[in-house]
């Protein structure tokens, strides 16, 4: 961005000098400026000028790069030029400050736009890349023929070569071995009952054939 270029008085245009309409003893002079000021510079110039009272002032306006004013020629160098220079310096200073303020405002605005753009880019990337977490649903085994094992219980396996000591109470035996012993005892008792029944039947048949009892 270009820096502010101060405006200065560079010439007195004698060709434009005319008789003043204010008084016949006065003249209208044209001070040429280094460049044509903008409206903001002119506003600063007039604001500073209006803040002071100078008795020698008469008519004054700025037009097409000129400061145009009515005056007595003997007062130009002593009063009017210093008066104009003070307002010119103020207008230059305020215009320079305002240009700096605008530059800072634009830089801040660019930073805000850049920050907002980065935030939007980050949000878009997150929306594009992040997938929502799917809830984990446990599969039901209700329709399965296989039983569901919630836990595995390790039981000590009994060695087939280990003998059970004599006199070991049944309550101290492993459950599987106790069941096997009970089944063997039941078979032994059943076989004993069958043998007794056969003997009783045989004895009954012999009695029926006249054998003494």
Task: Name the features.
213 residues; alpha+beta; five-stranded antiparallel beta sheet; 3 helices
Radius of gyration, in angstroms, nearest whole number: 62 Å
Helix percentage: 40-55%
Low-confidence region ranges:
146-164
Q: Determine the oligomeric state from the structure.
A: single chain
- Number of beta strands: 5
- Main β-sheet description: 5 strands, antiparallel
Class from helix and strand fractions: alpha+beta
The chain-level mean pLDDT equals 79
Shape: rod-shaped
Number of helices: 3
Could you characterize the architecture of this molecule?
The longest helix has 54 residues, at 76-129. Strands 1, 2, 3, 4 and 5 form a five-stranded antiparallel beta sheet that branches. The termini are far apart. This protein has three helices and five strands. Helix 1 (39-50) packs across helix 2. Among the domains are: 9-103, no CATH class; 173-205. Helix content is 47%, strand content 11%. The protein has 213 residues and is of the alpha+beta class.
Write the layout of secondary structure elements.
Elements: E1 9-12, E2 18-19, E3 27-33, H1 39-50, E4 60-63, E5 66-71, H2 76-129, H3 175-208
Antiparallel strand pairs: 1-3, 2-3, 3-5, 4-5
Helix pairs in contact: 1-2
